[in-house]
Inverse folding.
């Protein structure tokens, strides 16, 4: 599976789909979480019990959780060996404190990789968010990759209506570049992947993100990543607590709308 690069251009010359590719014909599902807890506090909360049922299902049914970066490399024709035949990806947006208190113990128990998309204005600042020290502790395990979610999670549609074209242009640059710089300063490493806040993007935003140094970006469309997808618009399943049992099975099989 070779995803379309950048702004919908064809793959680079010489990148050819391997005839022995056994990755899922239906695509690769990226499973997106936000918050965890003992009960459902809101539409973004997955109970800890349901989350563990997801991890148990993946383990018991032969799925391999691969790092998001490996899927992106594969989409760019870089990965060897090929992805496993039953590959899935786990990510979480925002940096909620329950990622540390509830998600972290289960990730260690099942020993699977996760990518966190963080907006740094909240870290060590908002009461609902993790601290920088907690995030560093996650990183030290080697199981967590840390990536960007703009600086303060704006609604770009709202801001575009509110601001003049020049002010909006500067605002977008700030959200993309300040986030990247702050995360790299606090956590080290390279921030080169982006989760679009609220799943909002357009051609202008994509061009800005590429110029800022992001190589892949992600939406909240509930479908698997497919060969035709543009790498700055890759879909993710925004999971609800009701996505369990047969519903979860359909998602990881790439059969759920």
């Amino acid at each position: 599976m070779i995803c379309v690069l950048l702004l919908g251009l064809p793959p680079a010359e010489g990148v050819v789909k391997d005839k022995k590719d056994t990755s899922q014909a239906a695509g690769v599902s990226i499973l997106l979480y936000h918050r965890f807890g003992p009960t459902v506090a809101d539409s973004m909360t997955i109970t800890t019990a349901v989350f563990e049922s997801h991890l148990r299902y993946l383990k018991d049914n032969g799925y391999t959780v691969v790092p998001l970066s490996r899927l992106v490399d594969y989409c760019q024709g870089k990965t060897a060996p090929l992805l496993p035949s039953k590959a899935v990806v786990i990510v979480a947006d925002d940096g909620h404190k329950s990622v540390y208190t509830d998600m972290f113990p289960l990730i260690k128990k099942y020993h699977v990789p996760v990518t966190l998309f963080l907006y740094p204005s909240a870290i060590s600042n908002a009461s609902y968010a993790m601290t920088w020290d907690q995030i560093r502790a996650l990183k030290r395990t080697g199981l967590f990759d840390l990536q960007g979610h703009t600086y303060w999670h704006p609604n770009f549609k709202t801001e575009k209506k509110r601001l003049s074209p020049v002010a909006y242009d500067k605002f977008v640059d700030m959200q993309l570049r300040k986030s990247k710089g702050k995360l790299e300063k606090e956590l080290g490493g390279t921030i080169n992947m982006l989760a679009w806040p609220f799943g909002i993007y357009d051609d202008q935003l994509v061009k800005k993100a590429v110029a800022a140094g992001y190589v892949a970006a992600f939406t909240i469309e509930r479908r698997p990543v497919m060969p035709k997808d543009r790498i700055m618009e890759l879909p993710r399943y925004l999971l609800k607590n009701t996505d369990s049992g047969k519903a979860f099975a359909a998602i990881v099989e790439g059969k759920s709308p």
Summary: Helices lie at 48-60, 68-75, 97-110, 132-140, 156-162, 165-187, 203-212, 246-252. The mean pLDDT is 90.
